Structure formats: structure tokens, C-alpha cells
Amino acid sequence: MKGKLITFEGIEGCGKSTQARLLAEYFERRGKEVFLTREPGGPQISEKIREILLSNENEEMLARTEVLLYAASRSQHTGEWIMPAMKDGKIVISDRYYDSTLAYQGAARKIDRKVIDSITRFATFDIKPEITILIDIPVETGLSRIKRKDADRLERESIDFHRKVRRAFLELAKEEERYIVIDGTRSIDAINKEIILRIEERIIP
Ligand code: TMP
Question: Which helix (H) or strand (E) holds 112?
């Protein structure tokens, strides 16, 4: 496929959505065609699944149901939006992708890695990100940025749950060469500049 997939990952409140947008704007300024999107979400079906996943009304959701819904949202998103954009040669930037499933449903909810890998290959049509940017911050910092009363079903999980998620992302970053780890405690501008620098090192033509 001609295009490239760049993903952003991190715990709640790490600032990745802002950074994904700033990176998209940077590529656009350089005359590139960019497609900015997010998970869970994107096309209408995936956004509807997002609502089910994040609603506080669904507290009884089983971990198995959760992992399958994230995968269902991802398969529609990948097939309907990501693959066509990549075929068109666009730089696709996704705010979260399957590494979030490994961290949240794998490490924190204890779903077997082999099960996740298999569902993920199916849901993603085996598409992998070329670069993944992990915005790393302490859990306390991330959670303090979220308004408690507006917190969704996942954000309301315990501090220990979010610590497992952070640890899992850092482990993945060690395993996978595609990772760029960024210290997310600095200013928005400083983080944006470092991301651009580190991406340019990886040669985006
Ligand atoms: P967001 O807050 O970054 O939009 O993400 C929505 C929530 O969904 C967030 O709490 C992380 C969670 N999530 C998973 O648990 N598994 C996944 O595969 C994805 C994509 C997100």
C-alpha cells in the first residue's frame, strides 16, 4: 500500500489527541495528504460501537465482550477508512490503534495475548503502523487532567488499572522498533517539536 500509518498511544490524559492533530497540520503544511482519525471510532458504525464501549451505563460489560467490540470497531474503521486512505497514498494518523487493546484488554483486563493477536490480525486485515508514538506520562498526571464527573467507563477504572496500561505501553515500546517514546510532561509545543524531529529521522519521503 502506498500510504503510511502513524499511530499515537498512551494513557488517559496524555495529550495524544492534541499531538496527533498538530502532526497532521505539520504534514499538511508540507503539502502532504493526511487523514486524521481515532479509535474506537471513525466511520458511523465504529462511532456507534464507541458509544457502547465508553458509556457508564454498561458497567456489566464482560472483558471478552469489550475486546470483541474494540475489534469490531477496528475492523470497520480499517476496512472503510484506513485502507482506502492508504491506497490513495495518504499519511493516515490514528489516535490509538490495536496496541491499546494489548495494553487495556491484554495487560489490564488479562485477556490472553494469543487471543488478542489473532483477533487483531483479523480486524486489521494485517495492517500494521509504520510508526507508533507513545506519549508517556505518570498516571497521576494523566488522570488529574480528566474531570471526574465527565469520566467515561474506562477512565473510571482504578489507578492500578491505569498503571498496568502505562507499563504495558512501555513494554511494547521496548519490543517494537516502530515505537517512538516521548516524555509527555513538557509543553505542547516542545512535545510537538520533538515528535517532528524524531519522525523526520525515520524518513518520511
Ligand atoms: P480515547 O479516550 O483515547 O478516545 O479512548 C477511548 C478509551 O478506549 C480509552 O479509555 C482507551 C480505551 N481503549 C481500549 O481499552 N482498547 C482499545 O483497543 C482502544 C482503541 C481504546
Answer: none
Verify whether ligand 1 is closer than 6 Å to residue 12 (CB atom): yes
Domain tally for the chain? Answer: 1
- Closest residue CA from atom 7 of ligand 1: 154
Q: Is the CB of residue 120 less than 8 Å from the CB of residue 98?
A: yes
* Centroid of ligand 1 to alpha carbon of 193 (angstroms): 25
List the CATH number of the domain containing 37: 3.40.50.300
CA of 156 to the centre of ligand 1 (A): 12
pTM as predicted: 0.97
CB 113 within 8 A of CB 102: yes
Flag whether pLDDT at 205 surpasses 60: no
Q: Look up the domain containing 105 and give its range.
A: 4-202
CA of 53 from ligand 1 middle (Å) equals: 9
Cα of first residue to Cα of last residue in the chain, in angstroms, is 15
Computed over every residue of the chain, the mean pLDDT equals 96
